[in-house]
Design goal:
The protein is of the alpha/beta class. It has three domains: about 1-75; about 85-190 and about 340-370, Response regulator (Rossmann fold), CATH 3.40.50.2300; about 195-335, 3-Layer(aba) Sandwich (Rossmann fold). The chain is about 45% helix and about 15% strand. The strands form three sheets. A six-stranded parallel β-sheet has the order 2-1-3-4-5-11, with helices on both faces. Helix 6 links the parallel strand 1 (about 85-90) and strand 2. Helix 6 (about 95-110) crosses helix 15 and helix 12 (about 265-275) crosses helix 13. The longest helix is centred in the first third of the chain and has 20 residues, at about 5-20. Beta-D-galactopyranose binds next to helix 6.
Length: about 375
């Protein structure tokens, strides 16, 4: 069932390795190590950094201190690519459905290569994550992979890792090119959220009535938004509707509310809007699948039927959403390729450890989104 995703991830990994080699990057990116993996329970823990550090094998610390990397990048890169590096990973919060999938993929790839990995839960608190980054730096990690809590904290995070000289891969929340240009050992691996928004709009355009179920000449929708501070939420909101208007459809926004990527909030917003706007709602756009699953509960409780009297789309292709697409309870979703992004992030990290630097304007590496409909959903399950 995960085969497609795995194949995609492996393909992505090879593409990345190839393009990095072509750009004069490290030749160490495809090697993998055989050292013992870090204890599995680390992934679930949000224990203080000191405790995590104690658990890390000494060997990893000795072999690849950051100073070594700076002085002799090639040597540091070889050691790290052998899988002996010590990697710190900061996730904005563990309690996020998509980032849990992503985190598991990162853990599998990094530990599979033999790295010692420590994951920290930012608990959606930037101050807490700043402490975690500082602790990792004090511990002398070889590289950091950071999913920032706040996109607006990018400048500060970049200044901190630059100061410490730690090769860093940012994931999931994209800073601006200008912000990233401050540090050439920093790269962003993620997706272009505009693409996912456009695909959501296309999923609606692909329905028999292009979203205008009641034939009144306009598509009336509600928008359940993620965290609006996040560029993914902003772009998905904008570009899903833009795809409709670009195709000549008239649109009417009945409501737009932030659901912070959260299933319960998605359910509450949809429930309130269904009570308020009733049959006027033709389309429910959700910036992610977890909120769409919540909205589906409200839609079903209101006696409405997806793909008959209402359309529902999400993003991520969580397993639960794939099941709903397959059984016709969601109009479609968009694959947010966690495995591909995790593989890309590790490739970029290894290139950095091998001494590669990134020029300004070339610090974003994108993985494509993929539209998921009942026609192709089986490929993703
Ligand atoms: C998005 C994803 C959401 C949520 C968010 C966190 O890319 O679609 O489900 O995980 O990232 O920043």
């Amino acid at each position: 069932m995960k085969l497609f995703k795995r194949v995609m991830a492996m393909t992505m990994a090879s593409i990345m390795v190839f393009s990095m080699a072509a750009c004069g990057g490290s030749d160490s990116a495809s090697t993998s190590g055989t050292n013992e993996a870090a204890p599995a329970e680390k992934e679930e823990e949000a224990a203080p950094a000191e405790t995590e550090q104690e658990a890390a094998p000494e060997q990893a610390e000795e072999e690849a201190a950051p100073a070594e990397n700076e002085a002799a990048p090639e040597a540091g890169g070889e050691a790290a690519a052998g899988g002996s590096g010590n990697i710190g990973v900061c996730i904005y919060k563990f309690d996020d459905a998509f980032m849990t999938t992503y985190r598991n993929a990162l853990q599998e790839i990094l530990e599979g290569k033999g790295y010692t990995v420590t994951f920290m839960d930012g608990k959606n608190d930037q101050a807490e994550q700043n402490n975690q980054i500082n602790n990792f730096i004090t511990q002398g990690v070889d590289a950091l992979i950071i999913n920032p809590v706040m996109t607006s904290a990018a400048d500060q995070i970049i200044a901190t890792v630059k100061d410490a000289g730690i090769p860093t891969v940012l994931i999931n929340r994209e800073p601006t090119a200008e912000q990233m240009s401050a540090y050439d050992k920093l790269v962003y691996v993620g997706c272009d959220a505009r693409q996912s928004g456009t695909m959501q709009g296309e999923l609606i355009l692909d329905t028999p009535n292009k979203g205008d179920i009641n034939g009144d000449g306009k598509v009336s929708y509600i928008m359940i938004q993620g965290d609006p501070e996040n560029v993914d939420a902003q772009y998905r909101t904008e570009f899903s509707v833009k795809a409709l208007t670009d195709a000549g459809m008239e649109v009417e926004e009945l409501d737009l509310q932030r659901g912070d990527w959260d299933r319960n909030k998605g359910q509450e917003i949809a429930q309130n809007d269904l009570a308020k706007f009733g049959d006027d709602i033709e389309v429910v756009f959700c910036n992610n699948d977890d909120m769409a699953i919540g909205a589906l509960q409200a839609i079903q409780a209101a006696g409405r039927t997806v793909n008959e009297d209402i359309y529902l789309v999400g993003v991520d292709a969580l397993d639960a959403a794939l099941n709903e697409v397959a059984s016709g309870n969601m109009t479609g979703t968009v694959l947010n390729d966690a495995n591909g992004q995790a593989a890309g992030a590790v490739d970029a990290m290894e290139a950095l450890l091998g001494g590669k630097t990134y020029a300004a304007g070339e610090q974003s590496i994108y993985v494509d989104y993929v539209k998921v409909t009942p026609d192709n959903v089986a490929d993703f399950q």
